[in-house]
Design a protein that fits this description.
By secondary structure, the chain is of the alpha/beta class. The chain has 15 helices and ten strands. The strands form three sheets. It has a six-stranded mixed beta sheet, with helices on both faces. A two-stranded antiparallel sheet has the order 1-2. Strands 9-10 form a two-stranded antiparallel ribbon. It has a single domain (30-221, 229-299), classed as 3-Layer(aba) Sandwich (Rossmann fold), CATH 3.40.50.620. The structure holds adenosine monophosphate, FE2/S2 (inorganic) cluster (FES) and zinc ion.
Length: 328
């Protein structure tokens, strides 16, 4: 296997591009893919500062690294969710990464600042933890961006993540979610812009990028098995990709080019009709309390252990070797 760009021995193949690369040319390829996503979807305007949401996983650390390499003014944001040792490890990886490079990292500890954590929220709502977790993260990413004056928030969602979410939304024809599924959610009153610059990069490529660049990331999965259904969708899509390389990208980019616009109008109308939360001032469809403040009211002071999600229960004992992490 030879590198497509320079002809030296290759270290990784990317079947959907029908290509293989040596380490240096692979790094160049990753930068080009991120540049292209930012350009094609107009994610960032010249001079705009970016707040990168970092979890200590391969995707978000690689994203922060890539944005800095591309000369963006990008600072990090870590949210402590209080998910036992998993949160301790993810914080340690994130802080070490930022400290080694002298890069600015903002931190929010949900328990310290809001008096609850994700295990407590899952217990109080009697729902899967991923719901409270996702809701809290989205709220706090946005709040931190507005508080610290970042017009753009970037997350490490990659091609595999986005294709799996799309599959889930199509299976149930979730028209509202389909309207909002895009690598860029534009800014609007009370909302910073949200961007996903890794949308052209596969999970395996992000792991390879970290290894090549010497980035230490946590391989551990969230023990509460965030996005469990999505892991199943990823398996299905990996099966299709195996048979027919390029399927995932064709599925996602076909939707973005030809399907998304049909659902986008509904999403825009929903945003325009939003009121303000009486507690925190965030945009909300229910003009009393936003979903985050309602969750906080229910979960404050609730003390619950980290419950193992279904995947972990089934895989207990060999969970570590079961699959590469989906942590972003
Ligand atoms: P996930 O929802 O865990 O798949 O993560 C998706 C993206 O959200 C990651 O790539 C990060 O950009 C961001 N993210 C996840 N967890 C955290 C966290 N604890 N703090 C900050 N950002 C996070
Ligand atoms: Fe959100 Fe586990 S529940 S990362
Ligand atoms: Zn609120």
């Amino acid at each position: 296997m030879k590198c497509r760009r320079c002809g030296q021995p290759a270290v990784i193949d990317v079947r959907r591009h029908n290509a293989a690369f040596c380490a240096d040319c692979f790094v160049h390829h990753c930068r080009e893919q991120v540049k292209r996503a930012i350009h094609d979807f107009r994610m960032v305007e010249p001079g705009q500062r970016i707040l990168v949401a970092v979890s200590g996983g391969k995707d978000s650390l690689a994203l922060w690294h890539l944005l800095r390499e591309l000369d963006y003014e990008a600072d990090g944001l870590y949210i402590g969710q209080g998910i036992g040792e998993y949160s301790d490890h993810s914080r340690a990886a994130t802080v070490a990464f930022a400290d080694e490079r002298g890069w600015k990292l903002h931190e929010i500890d949900i328990r310290g600042e809001y008096g609850f954590d994700i295990p407590g929220a899952a217990h109080a709502t009697k729902r899967a933890p991923c719901g409270s977790c996702g809701l809290s993260k989205r709220h706090l990413f946005n709040k931190a961006a507005l508080d610290h004056g970042y017009p753009v928030v970037a997350t490490g969602h990659n091609l595999d993540d986005e294709a799996a979410v799309l599959l889930g939304n199509v299976l149930r024809w979730e028209t509202g979610y389909l309207g909002r599924q895009h690598p860029v959610l534009p800014e609007s009153p009370g909302f910073a812009r949200k961007v996903k610059p890794l949308v052209r990069m596969g999970e395996r490529e992000m792991a390879a990028y970290c290894v090549i660049q010497g980035i230490d990331y946590i391989v551990e999965e969230c023990p509460m098995a965030a996005g469990n259904k999505h892991l199943g969708y990823k398996d299905v899509l990996n099966g299709l990709e195996e048979q027919s390389p390029g399927s995932k990208a064709a599925f996602l980019f076909g939707f973005l080019e030809r399907g998304h616009e049909h659902f986008a109008a509904t999403a825009g109308e929903e945003r325009d009709a939003l009121g303000r939360c009486r507690e925190c001032g965030s945009p909300t469809s229910n003009d009393e309390l936003c979903a985050f403040c309602r969750l906080r009211e229910r979960a404050q002071g609730v003390d619950a252990p980290v419950e193992l999600g279904p995947t972990r229960r089934r895989n207990r004992g060999h969970a570590r070797s079961a699959r590469p992490t989906s942590a972003g």
